[in-house]
Amino acid sequence: MRWPSNERPAGRFATNAEERSTAGGPGSDAFARLYDLDLAEDPGDLDLYLALASRTGGPVLELGAGTGRLAIPIAEAGHSVTAVDRDPAALERARARLATAGTAVARRVSLVEADMTTLRLPNAGDYKFGFIALNSLLLLGQRDRQVAALRVLASHLARGGVAAVDVWIPDAEDLGRFDGRLSLEYARADPLTGRVVTKLSSARHDAASGIVELTVIYDEAAPGEAPARWLRTDRLRLVGADDLVGMAESVGLRVETLAGDHALTPLGVGSERAVLVAVRP
User: Fold this and answer.
1) How deeply is 202 buried, as exposed, middle or buried, from its count of CB atoms within 10 A (0-12, 13-18, 19+)?
2) Do residues 22 and 238 lie in contact, with contact meaning Cβ atoms separated by under 8 Å?
3) How many Cβ atoms sit within 10 Å of the Cβ of residue 141?
4) pLDDT tens digits, residue range 200-222?
C-alpha cells in the first residue's frame, strides 16, 4: 500500500510512538526501532519546524515526539525543547541519541513520558512554539481525544505563541484501496542489526465514521534464519481541513495559515496534507 509523498500513516503511527498500542509492553523496544526504520526516508518536515522555532524562539514543545527525530535537530539549532511521548521505549532511543549529540544539546532537551491528551507541565503557558507532527493527531482515534491534545498544546503556549499540526488528507483513490487487501510497504535492511525487515500493511476504512483500522506486519530475518514477526493494529481517525480548523479554534487558537504541504503552499485541490499554523491570541 502506497501512502503519498513517502509519508504513509505507517511511518508515523508505527511514529507515532505516542499511541503505539504496545507502548510499554512486550515488543515495545522492537516497535520503537522499527519506527525509526519506517522513517529512513525523510518526510521532509524538519525545515518547517526549524523555521517556526527560529521565528518564535524557545522554549519548544513537541507532543508525540517518538525517538527524537525532530526534537533533537531543533535542540541542535539552539532551542530548548520538551519532547513528550507516552512510550518509554521510544524515549529510551531518544535518550541514546542525545548521548551522542553532545552535552550542550542534551541539556537543551527534556524527555517527558506522558499522554499528550492529559499532559500538564509545571511551566505550562511558557512555550513559544508547540507542534504535533506527521499524522500523530490521527492516531488518537477519537475526535474528543484529538481535541484534548490540541487543548493541551494551546494551554502550554505563551500568549502569542505559535502552534503547528500536520495531518495527511487521503483522496477517494486512497480510501478505495483501504479494503483489507495486504500490500507490501518495503523491504529494507536495518543498519543496526543488518537484518532485512519486510513490512506489509492492510487497512479498512469506515466511511461513516472516518475511521481507518490499519494493521502492519514486520518480518525481520538474517539470511538463512527464520523471521521474527511483529504485528500491530492502530485505529486512525481521519481529519479533514475544515475539521482541523474547527478543532483548533474550539481550543482558543487563531488560525494563521492552512497549507497543503510542509513548504506552506496554500491548501488546494490535490493537496495531500493539511498543515495548520495557529497563534494563541
Assistant:
1) middle
2) no
3) 16
4) 999 999 999 999 999 999 999 98
